[in-house]
Design brief:
It is a single chain. With about 140 residues, the chain is α+β, with helices and mostly antiparallel strands. It is built from 1 helix and 7 strands. The chain has a single domain, classed as predicted glycosyltransferase like domains (Thrombin, subunit H). About 25% of the residues lie in helices and about 45% in strands. A 6-stranded antiparallel β-barrel has the order 2-3-4-7-6-5. Strand 5 and strand 6 form a beta hairpin.
Length: about 140
C-alpha cells in the first residue's frame, strides 16, 4: 500500500495567497446584510476567508470579491455563488471558511482567471530566480 504525501493538493485549481476584500451573505436570505471580511487565498474554483461566525457545511452563499484589473488601479466586483465546504475555528469567535464556486458572473470569471494566472506566473518566476541564485552559490563554492 502506498501512502499519500502530506502536501498532496486536493484542489482542482491552484490558489494564490491574497488579502482581498470579500462581502458575503446567505443566498436564501436576501434581506440579510452582507458581511465584509478578508480572504486568505483565492483560486478559480474557490477561496478561503476569515469569518466571525461558524458557517455550516453545504450553505450556499452570495459572495462579492474585488478583483484588481491587470495593469490598472481599478477593480472588478465579481458576483459569485459558492458552497461552504469546511469551516474551522482558529481562535475565539474567529473562523476560516473554505468555499468552492458554483457560479461566477462572466466579467468576474474572466477577471478572476486573468488575475490568478498573473499571480501564479509571478510566483513561479520568483521561485526560478531563487533556484538560480542557489545554484550559482553552490557552483561558486565548488
Amino acid at each position: 500500500m502506498g501512502s499519500k504525501s502530506k502536501n498532496t493538493e486536493k484542489r482542482k485549481y491552484p490558489r494564490i495567497d491574497s488579502k482581498t476584500k470579500i462581502r458575503y451573505k446567505e443566498f436564501h436570505k436576501p434581506l440579510k446584510v452582507f458581511r465584509s471580511v478578508s480572504s486568505i487565498n483565492i483560486g478559480i474554483g474557490g477561496c478561503r476567508f476569515e469569518t466571525f461566525e461558524k458557517l455550516p457545511e453545504n450553505l450556499i452563499l452570495t459572495i462579492y470579491i474585488n478583483i484588481p484589473l491587470p495593469y490598472s488601479y481599478q477593480v472588478v466586483s465579481a458576483k459569485i455563488f459558492a458552497k461552504v465546504v469546511q469551516t474551522k475555528e482558529v481562535g475565539t469567535n474567529k473562523f476560516e471558511s473554505s468555499v468552492y464556486f458554483i457560479a461566477v458572473d462572466r466579467k468576474g470569471a474572466i477577471s478572476l482567471k486573468q488575475w490568478v494566472d498573473k499571480e501564479l506566473k509571478s510566483v513561479q518566476k520568483r521561485k526560478r530566480q531563487r533556484s538560480r541564485k542557489r545554484l550559482e552559490k553552490t557552483s561558486a563554492v565548488a
